[in-house]
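Structure (tokenized):
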């Protein structure tokens, strides 16, 4: 996994859009994770977690963004895109990225509980996988983590 301490302006700008999507998720009562897909410096998909409102366990922000991008591109292969997501992906979402053949993943907050990349740094290097992509973690990580902390604090406080 490639982690950078000084992300590019484009990475920060795209992650800011993903954070805006995460805030929309929170307003909908969803776990606040947002995602955007960039192709040729343009956002082609922007969305957020929708597992609760859609009663769909696969409706994570990453999967929703890949679905939108594939529909927009009229192709299930997204070989020249970068996916930005506010939280480190789970195993299901990593599988969707591999299937979509993305070029690059950029995520914000690390997820030490369910994040597949920090739990098993070699998972994407498995020789049996038919696709690999560049990964950058920790872009605007503090902001992304704070949105999640605030959400879960309020959920616990309300119960």
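Design, position by position:
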């Amino acid at each position: 996994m490639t982690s950078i301490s000084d992300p590019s302006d484009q990475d920060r700008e795209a992650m800011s859009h993903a954070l805006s999507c995460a805030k929309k998720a929170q307003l909908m009562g969803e776990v606040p994770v947002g995602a955007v897909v960039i192709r040729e410096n343009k956002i082609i998909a922007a969305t957020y977690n929708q597992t609760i409102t859609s009663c769909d366990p696969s409706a994570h922000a990453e999967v929703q963004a890949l679905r939108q991008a594939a529909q927009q591109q009229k192709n299930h292969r997204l070989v020249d895109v970068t996916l930005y997501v506010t939280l480190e992906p789970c195993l299901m979402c990593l599988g969707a990225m591999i299937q979509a053949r993305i070029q690059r993943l950029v995520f914000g907050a690390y997820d030490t509980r369910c994040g597949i990349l920090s739990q098993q740094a070699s998972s994407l290097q498995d020789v049996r996988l038919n696709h690999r992509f560049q990964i950058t973690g920790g872009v605007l990580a503090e902001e992304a983590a704070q949105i999640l902390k605030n959400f879960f604090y309020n959920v616990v406080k309300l119960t």
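Reviewer-requested clarification: The chain has a mean pLDDT of 89. Strands lie at 2-3, 34-39, 42-48, 82-87, 104-109, 134-137.
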